[in-house]
Write a structure and sequence with these properties.
- By secondary structure, the chain is an all-alpha fold.
- The protein folds into 2 domains: 61 residues, Orthogonal Bundle (434 Repressor (Amino-terminal Domain)); 77 residues.
- Helices cover 74% and strands 0% of the residues.
- Helix 9 runs antiparallel to helix 10.
- The mean pLDDT is 85.
Length: 148
């Protein structure tokens, strides 16, 4: 099970997870050490970590695939992602946010372009930015590099 990876990715201690799930700390320790967990324990942990039971049962290797994909990425693409997101390992939600905000602001400025020519130019530049980030998001999906 990937319980330890999920717990650490959320910056939780074993005690905090035990409190959130209603389980004993010793139970969490045993499950992380590789002992079999009961269905009831899995349900409690899945609920506390906000994941499905199937996700909880995944092997550790699947959780590290995106990190391995990031490491295998050519240096040019790593620089491309870091430069655009200002993060070493970007999140997909960050890309979605940038695309959404760029579209909204671009359309608003294009609407203002009816009154002011400079606003139209700014709106068009924001829309181009939104489409470039859409392309960047597509590349991130293609290489499966997004951090959880």
């Amino acid at each position: 099970m990937i319980l330890k990876q999920l717990r650490l990715s959320r910056s939780l201690s074993q005690e905090q997870l035990a409190h959130m799930s209603g389980l004993n700390v010793r139970t969490i320790q045993r499950i992380e050490a590789g002992a079999n967990a009961s269905l009831e324990s899995k349900k409690c942990l899945a609920s506390a970590l906000d994941v499905s039971i199937q996700t909880l049962e995944l092997e550790e290797s699947t959780m590290t695939n995106s990190l391995q994909n990031w490491r295998a990425l050519p240096i040019v693409l790593k620089i491309w992602f870091v430069f655009n997101f200002l993060q070493v390992r970007p999140k997909r939600t960050t890309a979605n946010r940038v695309v959404y905000l760029s579209h909204v602001a671009g359309f608003l400025f294009c609407g203002l372009g009816l009154v002011n020519e400079a606003a139209l130019v700014g709106g068009l530049m924001l829309l181009v930015t939104a489409y470039l980030f859409s392309f960047l998001k597509w590349q991130g999906d293609k290489y499966d590099i997004w951090r959880n």
